[in-house]
Structures are given as structure tokens and as C-alpha cells.
Design goal:
There is one protein chain. The protein is mainly β. The chain has one domain. The chain is built from one helix and four strands, in the order βαβββ. The chain has a four-stranded antiparallel beta sheet with strand order 2-1-3-4, with no helix packed on it. A hairpin with a 6-residue loop joins strand 3 and strand 4. The longest helix is centred in the middle third of the chain and has 8 residues.
Amino acid sequence: MKEIIECDQWSSTADNIKDLKFDEVGINDLVGGDSEAAKVIFGGHFIRRTVTDTAMPYIGNVWFVKDETTGGLKKYRAKYDSSD
């Protein structure tokens, strides 16, 4: 099992995503990129979940795990559209 942060593909483009800490981040911490538009249009999607090692995200979602070296967000898996 893995603890992940799941967010929509637009929120995952935040300019500051590499500067944020996995244990502390929330959707309101995401700044820049398409994350601003996602928050305005539909509120964005950002949740913490525990998933199995073989689980895959739904279409339009990106999963981040905790980078054990920095404590930041490390992209784990993504499914941007049905072709992935």
C-alpha cells in the first residue's frame, strides 16, 4: 500500500509543486500553471488516499508520493487521457 496525493491534471501543473512538502500541502498551496484556473472553474481536485501498488489513477488524475529524500512531492503515476 502507498499513501498518495491525487489531484487533477491541471492542478498538477502548479508552478510551485516541486517546492511543496508532501505532509503539509493542500490545494490552496498550489500556485500558478493551470492550477489557478482549475480552482476557479471547478474547485480543483486534491485528496490524500492509500492505494495498492498496482492501482492506477482515473482519467485526468495525477498521483504524487512523498520523495523520501526531500519530503516533497514526486510524481508517481498519471492518466491524462484514455490513450495512456
